[in-house]
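Reminder to self: keep the SMILES exactly as supplied, no canonicalising. Ligand is S-adenosylmethionine.
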Amino acid sequence: MDENTIREFSQKIFHDLAGSMGSAMAYVGVKNGIFKIMKDQGEMTLELIVEKTGLNNRYLEEWLKGMVCTGYLKYHPERKTFELPEEHAFLLASDGTDHFMGGLFSAVPMMVGVAPKVADAFRNGGGVHFNEFGEEGVDAISLMNEGTYRQRLASYWMKSIPDIFQKLTEGCTTLDFGCGTGNVSMTLAEAFPRTTCYGIDLDLTSIQKAEQSAQNAGFKDKISFIHGNIETLEDQQFDLITILDCIHDLVDPVGILKSLKKMLRQGGSIFIVEPKAADKLEENINPIAGMYYGMSLFHCMTQSIAAGGPGLGTCMGPQKMEDLIKESGFSQFEILKIKSPVSLFYRVGI
Ligand SMILES: C[S@@+](CC[C@H](N)C(=O)[O-])C[C@H]1O[C@@H](n2cnc3c(N)ncnc32)[C@H](O)[C@@H]1O
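Structure tokens returned for the bound complex:
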């Protein structure tokens, strides 16, 4: 055994544990709006942060020190002040933008919280059902994806597929399958006033939140959110079906894709977004895939297995996607050349 390797690896373990704690502390910072309050403020004393946030002095003090040690905040010992650097604020205090990374932390407690149940599932089978993650789980998924969808879906992703963009502009009918809290349909309805949008999801909490958003935005006539399974919409036809961050979660992916195929109008397309992962494990050895494998174990894969599904997992990769598409009877499958560090994009047609 090499002693240096042991020493280096022990440092990595501390580094990872600090990362876990840092993520949970950052969750608290996002949840309590502390990063937003520290944004653009320069150096701040503890007392000033207490005053501006109205939060408990002792909790804040410990949190600030922890965030300094994990590299989120800067500390100025001469003046005992704390600072959120503007580059960090760009990622942590920028809700609603496509560069907001704070939403990722919202997934940490709900996912890590089920680790004991997942460990048990290794021995006894089963898993954690989607609804066991509760409202916090629904909100976390929404917060992770909302900014990106709002900023990129219409103006970048759809724009890069000119014929679909044209149909949306002229007015067509879309279905967002596994719509969650409705961010995709809300974005499309806003960007393409002539288009009519439908969203469907099995989860009632998600649909209720989606309906509320549509009502708040005055889109009740343009968007219909449906709670239920795909058979509810069997007789309808759509020009564009979107499936974002969803196929790898499904209990019956081929069955769903076959049903969606029947609902696609002649010349229509399915637009799919999935987490970015390579087919080979050796090409996935990076922090993003490491994060995705954790999300898979503690959410995506386990909720599929819990419901009797195959547990495709967050990192299923493009080859598996192509296999599913072909098995479902589609003849057109294209990996779209849309750039993203975290997502893969596909277009599917009959
Ligand atoms: C990871 S979430 C993604 C939500 C949303 N598409 C997004 O990108 O934010 C996956 C969603 O698929 C939904 N879902 C899973 N199986 C489904 C099914 N058979 N029919 C409808 N929705 C389903 C879940 O309830 C969940 O809201």
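Points to follow up:
DSSP finds 15 helices and nine strands in the chain.
The pocket of S-adenosylmethionine is lined by residues 130, 141, 145, 178-180, 183, 200-203, 206, 229-230, 244-246, 249-250, 256 (CB under 6 Å).
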